[in-house]
UniProtKB/TrEMBL annotation:
Gene3D superfamilies: Glycosidases. InterPro entries: GH, GH_1_N_CS, Glyco_hydro_1. The keyword Hydrolase applies. This is Beta-glucosidase. The keyword Cytoplasm does not apply. Coiled coil: none annotated. It comes from Durusdinium trenchii. Belongs to the glycosyl hydrolase 1 family. Keywords: Glycosidase, Hydrolase.
Length: 546
């Protein structure tokens, strides 16, 4: 991999990724560098309308070369959009809006997705070991080795530093540090603890702030989110973490309860693989109880000034399928209340939203008065932040003009809502992050918002050359960040942004077929290569002087 000096040298041409370079990501024609430079020069000289025309022309002339790509029809559509705005202006905007040196710039991983070493040094199995060993992930893949980060973490953290980030988000593997025996007793595991101690020590040496997730889906195999006892177990585990890792100031309890409850208990596509109509609400209920109790414990026993604890919620903000239809417009609100409000209303308002109560009736569990009070404490502005994960945009429509029965889709009139990275769910819609931030800010007024995940996979093509020259990802980050910049300028308290992910990793049910990293990983020999997007971040962060 290039040394930091090589990267530094190269980044001179990287901070400024033009529309054409993005286009090159799709065409893969040689001579990228030269054309990019001339484009840059041109861009500096001509006015916006001329740029636009030229861009269109370039887009059209490259059509023949990319015919073979099945994504071309839509890629062309997405590019014509990208070419209508000036990338340099976006980067100027980003630099201006994020000049505050205390802004947290980071990248992220999660334990099961990168660590491997699934049965080493006393780690006991989690529901994801069980699920993948039963062959439930893509092509029977699993996280047994993953990125072998358990043994290679140091070179990976060197990269976090080299790229210029001041923050690193990762999760702790519950059963590595606090395994469970056959009688369901949990006990500290020295070797597992040491692994994270080493990481924390190394990060502190490098001046990188750790942002630690207690739970990113790898539940001990013997537990189940449907049983109430899981709440006590989680509180005991969290108490152990807060006691053992006092060097950590920034915590989050859960990553994406919507996802692990819905995918794990309604759709059955994630561990533990159950399918049902309503069990996800039982899961969510126990997660919320556990969250409230852990924050209470944090407040009473572990809090020092400057410490933070939050919940990380995912959502992709929708657009009305027919903006002229008021029912579709209302459907957007209903969708957001059902998607975000399911978890955020209890934390910021002390109970589930009325809409959810009405539509689910007896299928939605109820909080006791005591639980409601405890939940409200979880959003105390002294330590609370809102952790926001977001990726895609969607259309929603009201079914039979009934705004609370919503249906989602990604296409309209034969066109996708944005460039499709994963047809099932990931489309590039930068505007959604702005609408999403506004909605969260207005409804909950959190003291601060931390964007804990944002990023994209490769759009189908996983060849090495294409994957490493990931201009599509540069374009994704740049466009979303420009929207976050707008949000900052509107006064929305976004205090950090951590890109998903530091490195290509085990993408849950999708196995290794989806690469979300800014660092390429060869899963055969575990050799890492920084992608263009990593170099782009490095250039950007150098200019902002993080
Ligand atoms: C995040 O989830 C996770 O936190 C992270 O671990 C993961 O690597 C990353 O995103 C990339 O996926 O398969 O059509 O049923 C993002 C939210 C919610 C997106 C569930 C995918 C499944 C859609 N995810 N969704 S589908």
């Amino acid at each position: 991999m290039p040394s930091s000096r090589e990267l530094h040298h190269e980044d001179e041409s990287l901070g400024l990724c033009t529309a054409e370079s993005l286009e090159e990501g799709f065409t893969m024609t040689p001579g990228v560098e030269k054309r990019r430079w001339s484009w840059k020069l041109l861009g500096a000289l001509v006015a916006a309308p001329a740029v636009l025309l030229l861009g269109r022309h370039l887009g059209a002339s490259s059509k023949a070369e990319v015919k073979a790509d099945p994504l071309m029809a839509t890629a062309d559509w997405a590019l014509s959009r990208d070419l209508t705005t000036d990338d340099n202006q976006k980067e100027d905007l980003i630099r201006e809006a994020f000049s505050d040196p205390s802004f947290m710039w980071g990248c992220a991983t999660s334990a099961y997705q990168v660590e491997g070493a699934w049965n080493e040094d006393g780690r006991t199995p989690s529901i994801w070991d069980k699920f993948t060993h039963a062959g439930r992930a893509f092509k029977g893949s699993n996280g047994d080795q993953a990125c072998d980060y358990y043994h290679r973490w140091q070179e990976d953290l060197d990269r976090v530093a080299q790229y210029g980030f001041n923050t690193y988000r990762f999760s702790i593997s519950w059963t590595r540090v606090f395994p469970m025996d056959d009688q369901k007793n949990m006990y500290p595991n020295e070797k597992g603890i040491q692994f994270y101690k080493n990481i924390l020590h190394y990060l502190s040496k490098k001046g990188i702030r750790p942002l630690v997730t207690m739970f990113h889906w790898d539940l001990p195999e013997k537990l189940d989110w449907l049983d109430e006892e899981v709440v006590d177990y989680f509180v005991e585990y969290a108490d152990f973490l807060l006691t053992t890792f006092q060097e950590v100031d920034w915590w989050s309890t859960f990553n994406e309860p919507w996802t692990f409850c819905t995918m794990g208990y309604a759709l059955g596509l994630h561990a533990p693989g159950k399918q049902s109509k309503y069990l996800q609400y039982q899961c969510g209920h126990n997660v919320l109880r556990a969250h409230a109790r852990v924050v209470d414990l944090f407040r009473r026993r572990h809090f020092r000034m400057g410490m933070k604890i939050g919940l990380v919620l995912n959502y992709d903000f929708p657009f009305p399928k027919d903006p002229e239809n008021p029912h579709d417009v209302d459907a957007v609100q209903a969708d957001a209340v059902k998607g975000v409000g399911w978890f955020a209303d209890p934390v910021y308002k002390g109970d589930y939203p009325e809409l959810l109560k009405e539509s689910l009736g007896e299928h939605l569990p109820k909080f006791t008065e005591e639980e409601k009070n405890l939940l409200l404490q979880a959003s105390n502005p002294i330590y609370n932040y809102y952790g926001l994960n977001t990726y895609s945009g969607r259309y929603v429509e009201a079914v039979k003009n009934h705004s609370t029965w919503t249906k989602q889709s990604f296409w309209k009139d034969g066109e996708p809502i944005g460039f499709p990275f994963i047809h099932a769910w990931l489309y590039k819609v930068p505007q959604e992050i702005l609408l999403h931030l506004r909605w969260v800010n207005e409804r909950y007024g959190p003291p601060s918002i931390l964007i804990t995940e944002n990023g994209c996979s490769d759009p189908g093509n996983t060849e090495y050359e294409y994957t490493v020259n990931d201009w599509h990802r540069v374009g994704f980050f740049r466009d979303y960040l420009a929207k976050v910049a707008e949000a900052r300028m509107e006064g929305i308290p976004v205090i950090g942004y951590t890109a998903w992910a530091l490195i290509d990793n085990f993408e849950w049910a999708d196995g290794y077929q989806r690469r979300f990293g800014i660092t390429y990983n060869d899963f055969g020999n575990q050799k890492r290569t920084p992608k263009k997007s990593a170099e782009w971040f490095q250039g950007l962060l150098k200019r902002i002087q993080v």
